[in-house]
Structures are given as C-alpha cells and as structure tokens.
C-alpha cells in the first residue's frame, strides 16, 4: 500500500481491557453499581469523543443501566483514567477536558428511546455542562437550549504550571461561536474550583457561518460565512492568553448552502443523518510547517462515471480542479471522498476507485503527483469507514475507534517504482520516495540500483538528471524555509503528456487578505509565500547560466594565454577545495573508482564558480539567515551533487566487478567495461545540459574506457562531438601504454592532432616517433617565424653544417639558425631527444615542393 497506517490508539486494545479489569476488581470486592468499570454487554457503546492537543483521547461508554461514563487515555503514559459519570441515560454530543484535567465540559441530549421521561431541564433539547473533576464537585449548566452545542477547551503553548484561567469554545447549531473565560482557584490543598462560577465572561468569536473546522494542534479555527452569495474563508488564531486574532480572509469559489451546517474536527457527531452528510460537499483546510495553505473541496456527486474535486493552493496562488474517471461503472460511490494531510502531500481517496497523492509543495506539474486507480491494492488501501484527518498526519477512524499516524510507505513506493511502466508514475514515485527522508543513504542506493536497471526506460525525462536534482534538493530543503523557491526541485519545466484516468484545469485564485501586520512562526512563512506569489516574477530558482558564461570565458582566456586576476582564480579554486574536503569528510568509505586523483582544473573551476554563484544567489534572497550557515549549505549542496554522481559510478563499478587494471590500455575491453562506459556517458549527458560539475578524474576515466570500448572511427566521432574530453592524464597514459604497432600509431596520431596546441606539444615529447618529431619541429619553426623581422645576415655564419642540395631549404635553415642565435634563451629548442633530423629534412623538403607545386 502506498500509505501506511501506524496505529497510535485502539479502543479495543487500549481501553477495553482496562474496563474489564476494573469490572473484575469491583466484582471481586463485592461492590455495587455506579463504578467506572460497570460494563456488562454494552461494549458497542464505547466510542471516541475527542482528541485533545496533547494527544489525550476522551471516550465514553454506557453501563447496562444507561449511565454515561467519560474516560481519558493519556497518550504519553498509555494509562486510562476515569473522569466523570452522569447517572442519567443521555446521549453525548461533545466533550472536552482542560489541560490540567480539573474541568470537564460536556454537551448532552435526551437518549432517543420511546417512553423515556425527559432527563433534561423542561423545554431544553441540549444541555451543556461544566464540571469540576479535581475532585468531582460542582456542576454548572452553561446552556440549556433547543439546539446542539459542541464544546472545546483551548490548549495554549505555555509552561507546565497550572493556568489561572481556562478558555472554552461553545459552537452552536444556530451558527455562532463564543469563548468563555473560566477562572479557577485552589482550595483545601489541591481542590480546584471555578472562581467566577456566578458569571462567566463570554466573547463572541464568529457568527453566521455555514462551515467550521478546528485545528487542535495549532489552535486555529477556520470558518466560512456567506456574504452576498460569496463564500469567504476566515481563520482565527487563539493565543496563550484570552487574546485571539482574525488572521486572513479568502474568497472561495465553492457552492455552499446557507441552510447547511457542517463541523470538521469537533469530535464525533452521530446525531446527524450520515446519508445526508455524505451528500453534503466535502471541504477541509490543510496547512504544514512550510507555510502552505490548501483548501480541498468536493461538491455533491452528480455522476456515477466520474468525480470532480478541487484543491486550492493559496500559498502558490492557483487552484486545480481534477476530474477522475471512476474505473468500475458497476460499482456506485457509496462512501464519500476522503482528504488526508501527509506533510508535503495531500491524499485524495475514494474507496474502491482511486488514490491521488498531491504534491502541495510543488503542485505546478501534474507529473509530480501520483494518481493510482484500477487495482485491488488501491481499493483496499484504507478502511472504508469514515476517516477524519487531524493535525500532524493523524487519522481517526470514528467507526472502529482507532487513531492512526499516516505515513508514506517507502518500501511499497520503491517496489512500485521498480514495476511501473508509466513515466508519469516513475517521476511522481521518485519524488515521493525522496520526500520520505528516512535513511537517505540506503534509499539513494536502492534508487541508483533501479536507475542502472532502467537507464533507457524513460522517454519523457532523464532519470539520472531528475535523481541528482531531486535528491540534492531534499538533502538541503529542511535546513531553512524558502528553499523550495530558490533551489531547483526538478529538471522538468513543463509536462504535456496526459495522465491516464484524470484530467485537470488550473486557474489563478485571489490570494488571502492578511488581516494582521506582525507575523511569527507559520504565519510568517505563509505571508512570505504570498509575497513571493505577488512579486516574484519570473521564478527565483537557481540555474547555472551565469556559471556557464563565466566558465567558458575563463577557459577561452586560458587557451589564448590570457590570465584573469590571480586572486580571483585562486578564490574560485579554493571553493573547489572546500567542496572536495566537505565531500570526503562525509564519505569515510574508500572509493573503488579512481576519482579525485588528479587536479582537473577545468572541473575545479566549474565547481568553484557554482559555489560562488549559488552563495550569492542565496545571500540575495534568504533574509535573516547567517552568512556562515548559507556558505555551509552551499558546500553541502554542491558536495551532494558530486557525491550522487560518485555513488552512481561506484554502484556500477561494484556491480560489474571492475578492477584498477582497466586504466591500462594494453588489454581488450570486457562487457563490464562497456556497461560502465555507457553509464558514464549517460551521466555526462545529464550533467552537461544542466552544466553541473563532475568529480575530478571523471573525464580521464571516461576517455580511457572509450579507447577500450570503441572502434577508432566511433572514438574519434565521440571526441569530435565533445562526448569524450582528451585530458592530459588520459593521453599521457595512452602514449606510454600503447606500443608502436601500425594500429596503435594510427590511434596515437588521430588523438594528438585533436589536442589543444599546448597540450599537444607536451604529449609529443613523450612519443619517440617520426610523427611526433615532425610535429615538434613544425611547432618550433612556427614559433621562430611568428615574430620574424628580416635583418642583414651575418657573413660570419658557418654554412658547412647546414649544406643540403636543395638551395631554398639551405637558405631557410640559415634563417632559422640566425633567429635562434639572436636569442638562445628565448628560442631554445625543447624535445631534441625525440627529433629524427633526417626525417625532418625529408619532411621539410617534401612540404616545400608541395607549396611550390613542383
């Protein structure tokens, strides 16, 4: 299953055994009725009422006499506690307990049984009570009205000492919400009583709403009111004191009836008609620590063949409306759609039909979200009973009384990655797996294994490129906010291929109007996201275009013999040294591949330039982050890029069991070397288009394998098209390892003529052969004649040693000798040991006759 539900709480396992033990203890003691353990055959009445902010779970049950018991399961200690008993046959609407467990608020209605007298106050349908339970003492009636009331204590983030004042929300079916302020005091030791029980101050929080949702973790209230037939979403943030603030208003293009009324996350409500609720539009709000704000909405079902739902990404400034085809026409939709919050994702689940995992951090491209349909695993992924998504990826199954923590199933996603055939699913799964963040080294090894087996299986995107970019992004993303706006998340900018079974329409939406001017925590991040949507056009994602221009400029200057400021170049190369040191410090295992064994100044320049440019990019846009931290993040990011390339190469090297002797040319290539050469070529393609640095020594190893594996004409084609780069290390080894057979001479000569002039001159001196002698001689003559100015010749020159039969050549040699003699230190002839004088004479004669047309 793509989703793994880890059980945090189960009524049947965590509560029922305790109740039975309580019952057995009372029976053994010969106690009568009325105790907390009196529970005969009425186990089906046991159900969860509420989950408080600290994780404590309030539940209720009835004994055989109809008495209502309230219990609490402590999430930290895993212990149960009896809170209170109403010795009347009533039905519970809602219940909440304060943080100190000294006050209990409950809302109850008359049990629906014929012939039963009214246990409540005359003329009232619903009774809302506030009870002192430390110890059990006074009961105060808060409301006795004809409409349902829901209750919820506020849980502020404060020290562990008891609070002098508690705050209780009352949510009325008559569409208003008010806050009660309850002062408490201690009497007779630890006895806690309500101080102002005669008059509890009340404050109206909201009114005329048609929908409301409680976020117990963040203590926020979301509600929608209708203004001139326009739905407006509002959010109220409650603070540690009695203070609360309206944080934002946002227009919603959703269809809600003024006569409707629905609450989300205010406890289990079994009083409303469930069939009627299933036809009510489903709507919920999800946020996470990155400052995201999503509204998920599904209107009433009007077709058995397809279903439409919308997700409004307010933190991105747009919304998407999806239309999913229901694969099994014969199977009607009997259960409502479920929206679940999963940190960086929102899951949309329709039992028996589909499962859609939506990427809320990067929702622009549909290929970054996973849509599954049409198989039994999807159909049976989650329980079919009503599920409620609480804060922090908690999911409550009201029907069974189980509380789960929903997690992406990394093992299943990896297995699915191996088996799927669709490119869109491969891409979405790759990002899902990497976002899980558990044991990244092992995870990367498994993905690399999959890449090596499927290197040519993707047609819509480059597997290696996507893996390097995505994995590097997730390695640095958690360190600070706003990284999703500044670092590339994917190598893809567009996606035009259809996703089977689903279509979508994207629309811009009005941004929320923030109602406060000072932000902290989540609200600061949300406001930053909204500001980015307003003002940051185009996007600020980093790319290497500036690095590309600067690198080409430096290389061009080097070829022309020009030199940039020594300090500037030294700083760039120092950056590269820091990256390599950072990489080596994180990777203590010895490497199998012969990388990082040579200078490779070109790659070091690219590495250093990327560090410099990325650092400047982050310093410009990351406000309030220390420069030292940014510098370390940049080193970590570039190190990660290089490390992933090394990991891919190491995995291929290990898989094919290559040994260091592959670096020698005097042997035939094996199938294993062909496979590694292919992987290296694919790595080169992936990095070239993004202009990413490669580990020093990569090009040398790639070229050596190329010489081994390719026929000469293919080899030269790869060299001429820039796939293979002739490094000085590789060519030096080639000249030394290959003997001078006719075939090898052809290889050597073909490579020498393709070398840059300066490198070519160095390499020629290593090859004792007439061809190299010719090249050395011609280069020397060229150098002599470049700045030649005709001057009177010295009559004292000794001509006997240069005399040949061909007079023009005789004259030419005299000129060269004259130039050399004029400045011996400047024109000293290097490489004399490898010069065949007779060969040079014949070559020069032949060349002259050709020029003269003789």
UniProtKB/TrEMBL annotation:
One of its GO biological process terms is: positive regulation of amyloid-beta formation
What's the protein called, per UniProt?
A: Gamma-secretase-activating protein isoform X1
Q: Where are the transmembrane segments?
A: none
Q: Which domain of life is it from?
A: Eukaryota
- GO CC term, one of those recorded: trans-Golgi network
* Domain Gamma-secretase-activating protein C-terminal: from-to ranges: 642-749
């Amino acid at each position: 299953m793509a989703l793994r539900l880890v059980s945090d709480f189960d009524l049947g396992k965590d509560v029922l055994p305790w109740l039975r033990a309580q019952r057995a203890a009372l029976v053994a003691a010969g106690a009568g009725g009325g105790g907390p353990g009196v529970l005969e055959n009425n186990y089906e009445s046991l159900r969860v009422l509420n989950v408080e902010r600290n994780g404590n779970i309030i539940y209720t049950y009835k004994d055989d006499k109809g008495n209502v018991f309230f219990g609490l399961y402590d999430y930290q200690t895993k212990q149960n506690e009896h809170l209170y008993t109403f010795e009347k046959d009533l039905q519970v609407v809602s219940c909440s307990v304060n943080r100190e467990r000294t006050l209990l608020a409950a809302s109850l209605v008359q049990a629906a049984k014929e012939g039963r007298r009214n246990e409540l106050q005359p003329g009232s349908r619903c009774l809302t009570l506030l009870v002192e339970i430390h110890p059990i003492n006074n009961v105060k009636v808060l409301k006795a009205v004809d409409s349902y009331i829901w209750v919820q204590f506020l849980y502020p983030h404060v020290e562990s000492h008891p609070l002098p004042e508690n705050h209780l929300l009352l949510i009325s079916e008559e569409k208003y919400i008010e806050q009660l302020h309850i002062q408490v005091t201690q009497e007779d030791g630890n006895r806690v009583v309500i101080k102002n029980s005669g008059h509890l101050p009340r404050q109206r929080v909201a009114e005329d709403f048609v929908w409301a949702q409680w976020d117990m973790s963040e203590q926020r209230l979301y509600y929608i009111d209708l203004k001139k037939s326009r739905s407006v979403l509002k959010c109220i943030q409650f603070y540690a004191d009695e203070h609360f603030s309206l944080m934002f208003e946002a227009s919603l293009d959703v269809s809600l009836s003024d006569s409707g009324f629905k609450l989300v996350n205010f406890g289990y409500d079994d009083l409303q008609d469930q069939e009627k609720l299933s036809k009510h539009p489903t709507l919920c709000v999800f946020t996470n620590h990155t400052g995201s704000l999503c509204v998920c909405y599904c209107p009433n079902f009007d077709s058995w063949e397809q279903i439409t739902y919308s997700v409004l990404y307010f933190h991105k400034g747009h919304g998407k409306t999806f239309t999913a085809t229901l694969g099994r026409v014969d199977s009607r939709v009997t259960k409502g759609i479920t929206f679940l919050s999963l940190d960086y994702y929102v899951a949309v689940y329709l039992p028996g039909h589909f499962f859609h995992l939506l990427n809320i951090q990067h929702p622009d491209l549909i290929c970054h979200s996973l849509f599954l349909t049409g198989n039994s695993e999807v159909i049976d992924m989650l329980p079919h009973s009503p599920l409620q998504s609480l804060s922090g990826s908690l999911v409550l199954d009201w029907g069974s009384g189980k509380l789960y923590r929903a997690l992406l199933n990394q093992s299943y996603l990896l297995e699915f990655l191996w088996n799927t055939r669709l490119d869109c699913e491969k891409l979405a799964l790759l990002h899902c797996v990497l976002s899980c963040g558990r044991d990244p080294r092992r995870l990367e090894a498994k993905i690399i294994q999959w890449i090596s087996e499927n290197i040519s299986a993707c047609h819509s995107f480059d597997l290696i490129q996507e893996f390097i970019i995505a994995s590097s992004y997730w390695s640095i993303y958690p360190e600070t906010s706003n990284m999703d706006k500044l670092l590339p998340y994917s190598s893809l900018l567009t996606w035009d291929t259809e996703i089977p079974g689903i279509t979508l329409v994207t629309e811009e939406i009005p941004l929320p109007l923030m109602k406060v001017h000072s932000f902290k925590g989540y609200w600061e991040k949300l406001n930053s996201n909204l500001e980015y949507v307003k003002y940051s056009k185009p996007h600020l994602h980093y790319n290497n275009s500036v690095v590309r221009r600067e690198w080409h400029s430096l290389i061009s200057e080097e070829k022309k013999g020009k030199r940039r400021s020594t300090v500037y170049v030294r700083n760039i190369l120092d950056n590269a040294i820091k990256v390599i040191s950072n990489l080596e410090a994180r990777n203590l295992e010895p490497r199998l591949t012969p990388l990082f064994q040579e200078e490779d100044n070109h790659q070091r320049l690219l590495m250093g330039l990327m560090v410099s440019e990325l650092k400047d990019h982050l310093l410009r846009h990351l406000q309030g982050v220390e420069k030292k931290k940014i510098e370390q993040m940049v080193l970590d990011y570039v190190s990660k890029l290089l490390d992933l390339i090394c990991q891919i190469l190491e995995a291929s090297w290990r898989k094919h069991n290559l040994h260091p002797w592959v670096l020698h040319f005097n042997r035939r290539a094996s199938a294993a070397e062909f496979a590694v050469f292919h992987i290296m070529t694919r790595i080169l393609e992936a990095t070239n288009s993004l202009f990413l640095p490669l580990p020093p020594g990569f090009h040398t190893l790639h070229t050596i394998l190329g010489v081994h594996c390719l026929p000469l004409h293919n080899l030269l084609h790869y060299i001429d098209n820039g796939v293979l780069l002739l490094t000085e290390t590789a060519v030096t080894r080639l000249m030394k390892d290959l003997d001078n057979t006719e075939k090898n001479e052809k290889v050597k000569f073909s490579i020498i003529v393709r070398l840059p002039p300066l490198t070519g001159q160095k390499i020629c001196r290593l090859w004792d052969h007439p061809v190299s002698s010719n090249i050395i001689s011609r280069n020397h003559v060229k150098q002599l004649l470049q700045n030649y100015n005709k001057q009177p010749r010295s009559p004292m020159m000794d001509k006997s040693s240069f005399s040949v039969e061909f007079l023009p050549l005789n004259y030419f040699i005299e000129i060269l000798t004259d130039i050399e003699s004029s400045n011996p230190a400047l024109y000293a002839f290097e490489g004399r040991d490898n010069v065949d004088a007779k060969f040079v004479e014949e070559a020069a004669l032949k060349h002259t006759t050709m020029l003269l047309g003789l």
